[in-house]
Amino acid sequence: MDKKDPYAALRIREFNIFLLVRFVLVFGWSMQFIVIEWQVYSLTKDPLSLGIIGLMEIIPAFTMALFAGHIVDQKEKRNLLAWCIAAFSLISMGLFLLTWPVLVSDWHSKTILYGIYALVFFGGFLRSFFGPTIFSLVALIVPKKVYPNAATWNSSTWQMASVLGPAFGGFFISWLGVHWSLCIVFGLVILALVILFQIKRKPILNPKIGEPVVESLKAGVRFVFKTKAILGAMTLDMVAVLFGGAIALLPVFAQDILKVGSEGFGVLRAAPAVGAFLTMLVTAYLPISKHAGMKLLLAIFGFGICIIVFGLSSVFWISLLALFFSGVTDGVSMVIRQTILQIKTPDHMRGRVASVNSMFVGSSNELGAFESGVTAKLMGTVTAVVFGGTMTLLTVITTGIVSPSFRKLDLTKDIEAHERED
């Protein structure tokens, strides 16, 4: 297999099945998320309620993350993912029922709202297992020498689903309503569960099965904090997501500032993922592992600029372009981050490292949504978005100045070492 083959990972049958499962799941999950955002804001007309959605998910996701990583490293990955998907289907069914007019027509809006928050809370608990399980499973499907290529296609699939899920979600709200949109999500989750069983069970590579939980967790955290490339990538992304959380306020922009309705909301929500997806397709042909540290810094700096432009714009097409290019820059940073994590993490610690990553990055999506909701309440929506973009720029500049080793990070030698190992 040619190391420069842009389709190297796609020549592996189980990897294609894995991508299909991930596409269906992310499509359903992202569609569900914006439908719920729309429903919650429609019920409350309060931007803080959008932030509370994020808070309800981050509390269990963050507190369970390390323990989830320990479990993932101790268990067989295919079946564990199946259990996660099955539990996700219960959440989707619950949201479907909570938005069924026949069932909830006599309910108070606050009762419906609290029910949605409760299911989102359960979803946060579940999500603490999803990330580490998927991260660990893909490394058992593809050989090490195609990790960078697999990271590109894996991230591209995620972004493609993130493009189509929100876009279709916005249109389905208009065409079918919130209730039947969530019925479609439930069907997609069941489909993903069925497809998953086309992947064979995988060996457990952890040599310390039965290791005490505390020792296991300490080992995972120590590894992340002593590996500067991983720590730097996680920290940068955490700050960018935390302060660049304009996406969480899109219902406010769509309904009250740009006045473009649910269809425009879906298009705006999909724009960053379109940019990221196109960028990732390019990186399959033009690897970006050389001078990876500097490229990551520049990409996140560009992301911050785009968020500021979006916050200041009151013109739909300018806002759309700003979000598109925020996705372009995020696509570059995502491929670099995923490559760093796959290459620098040993097989037996993948679950725990992915869990620490979810604490840094994954949870910051929801914390960023909460931060955006709170700052929008205190400062106003536009000021909150501009503030977040500015904080992102300051963080990148600070990191570049105080961490010259990260600026010089180059992954070329690591990739070559994995190729010789295979």
UniProtKB/TrEMBL annotation:
Keyword Ribosomal protein applies: no
Membrane topology: Multi-pass membrane protein
Record's GO cellular component terms: plasma membrane
Pfam families listed in its UniProt record: MFS_3 (PF05977)
CDD domains referenced in this protein's UniProt entry, alphabetically: MFS_MefA_like
Residues that span the membrane, as ranges: 15-36, 48-68, 80-100, 112-141, 153-173, 179-199, 229-254, 266-286, 298-325, 378-402
Main location: membrane
Subcellular location: Cell membrane
Keyword DNA damage: no
Keywords: Cell membrane, Membrane, Transmembrane, Transmembrane helix, Transport
Gene3D superfamilies reported for this sequence: MFS general substrate transporter like domains (1.20.1250.20)
Protein name according to UniProt: MFS transporter
